[in-house]
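Quick question: what would this complex look like in 3D?
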Amino acid sequence: MKFKLLTSVAALALSAIAAKAETGLIVGIQLEPPHLDPTSAAAGAIDQVLYSNVFEGLTRFGPDGSINPGLAESWEISEDGLTYTFNLRDGVNFHDGTDMDSSDVVFSLDRARAEDSANAQKALFAGIESVEAVDPLTARVTLSAANGGFLFNLAWGDAVIVAPESIDDIKTLPIGTGAFEFSNWVQGDQIELARNEAYWGTPANLETATFKFISDPTAAFAAMMAEDVDVFYSYPAPENLPQFEADPRFEVLVGSSEGETILSTNNKMEPFTDIRVREAVAHAIDRQAIIDGAMFGLGTPIGTHFAPHNPDYVDLTRNSQYDPELAKALLAEAGYADGFTTTLKLPPPSYARRGGEIIASQLRAVGIETEISNLEWAQWLEEVFRGKDFGLTIVSHTESFDIGIYARPDYYFQYDNADFQQLMEDLTAETDPETRSALIAQAQTIISNDYVNGYLFQLAIATVVKAGVEGIWADAPTQAVDLTSVRWTN
Amino acid sequence: MLRFAILRLVSLGLSLVVASIVIFTLIEIIPGDPAAFMLGLNAQADTIAVLRAELGLDASPLERYFGWVTGMLTGDFGTSYTYRTPVSEMIGERLWISLPLALIALGLSTLIAFPVGILAASRRGSLVDTVVMGFTQLGVAIPNFWFAMLMVLVFSINLRWFSAGGFPGWDEGLFACLKALTLPAISLALPQASILARVMRSALVDTLDEDFMRTARAKGLTRKQAIRHHALRNAMIPVLTIIGLQFSFLLAGAIIIENVFFLPGLGRLIFQAISQRDLIVVESVVMLLVFAVILVNFAVDITYALVDPRLRRPS
């Protein structure tokens, strides 16, 4: 009797969940946002929850990474490429009911580029000379130099439009213009969003969206299998994916992310100052073995620091083909016939920890011994990123279009090439799409030929989705879980 | 008794001061900068400096230590670097999950351990004793997270009686919350119950051999009466010690279980805070746990004295 009662209670609870699921969606993500202001932290989790759902920028990323109009309906660019005039959409309100107009654009961009700005991507706004409100629906941005990537920069989560009225509480009460408004945050557990009934564009299909934070891979598996969550974005355990694929209740979306996973090399540390040594490392690495062994087959090999799904990508993997004999010969030529010992410092993600073990054994095969140390992120930032105290490390650079980091000689891998720096300046100033493509191809080739880092693979992103959920992005042009056009088909 | 309690209180205060110094120093030594962590790989040095100033990280360690301690004395635990909300609020919210979880687990563990331990001790050497001790051996040996995963597999994935984890919040009603805490509490309780049952049994077995037990039986008490009135009370000291230790363990040590069931408790808070270098949260939570442990030990000490009058006299 008791058992029967318990099962019926459980059934009741389950049916309640099922009824809720038709208008709401529960999305599992691994990390919880530290706070809810996308304009003052780098944490990807903030964008995952809020980008495009709650906050919008003048431009926005489409599912394929293209740049589409956002709060700016259209724009005119002056002949010299210095002045951008944005025509804002009419009738856009913030979730607190106040109007979104050009003064908010001025406020947001000025705040991001201010002296005391805490924007994690302040460099995006560095070229802005002034921002002015021409009239309530027209904003004009003047740049100090032409910047072919400016519209792209404005699509970032760090460039969303915020209002001066609500800025003080933005970290806990985000007020944006998006199709969803923030409704509740149970810290440590979940964030709830509700449909914005007064949205300026096509309203969202979902009435509510809940983001649940489940960091442990085993717990993520259990939550998905028990159908506690409807979607698990960026599913953390690739080894379980075949099981989900085989289950008719689920679907697995595999897409490309912006994460170039590289064996970062300290270009200012002996013996990596010698290009022959770096080339030897490149030829000692069997990318496919790493993808199969560490990522269970998910990932696309890369030969340079650029995303393969980008139309401007050049396949340079042949440049650093797996050839251990060549690697040994190059080492001997550089005076390291007996090999050498270096450090390999690994941050927590599994691509680094698992990939690191495989790379260590591949390097050992050509005579390079590595001392592996596992670091937490904060330690990695301190020792490797800031302290530059490393020989090799593995990290995925997840920002979109970040080849520009090779033009920063003080960046942690310390690549200093004046030609490349000049090329990047030319690229920024160039606005003609064809010339830009050519310059981008050239940039990819230079860093590939210089064997700056070991280029491993483009990080794939796997999202597990319950059957009947439609509209989840497979690719991740930015770290966003855009739910604006997601719906249930059953 | 009063003098005993006062002496204990003084040593409690001293322990807290020492603990605060140790915690602060340890956390100062760990490499990693919360501002750099928050701003990520593309941040410029000047932005990090701005954030450090905003967080008050540019003050000297001594200033920060005294700021922290004086704040705590007035109930102000500071503001979290990452979440930007008062630490006391965060701890309060998490405590509302960790504390009930620890209490339920402790309650379950005691409820199982007492009868089992007494049964095994009073039938020492019998089949019942062997079977019970066999099971408790198993219970001690099985890691609680593995047991937790097994329960999720059976009760959440296959039978669908419980969700695989998460916590609905107390607003959703007592039933929903207790339901969410059931599997975690059981997985925490079983290993603890096994340990407690074994301690109970051996403590009781020892007292059963004492002379006063023979005397009790000789003056006409039945075996049951003798156990209840004389043996149990004398066997309580080691059992109380273990219960005290277990409570502190359950409060702070549920971290793995909280991860398996993605419960937003204190353990997960501290885990997250360490990886994000949210130092002020780490310091305050650890301090709170130290305080809880010391307080529980104090309570246990006082209970010893209540149970055993000999301990009330300072040696």
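Answer marked as accepted. Residues 123 and 129 of chain B are 6 Å apart (CA to CA).
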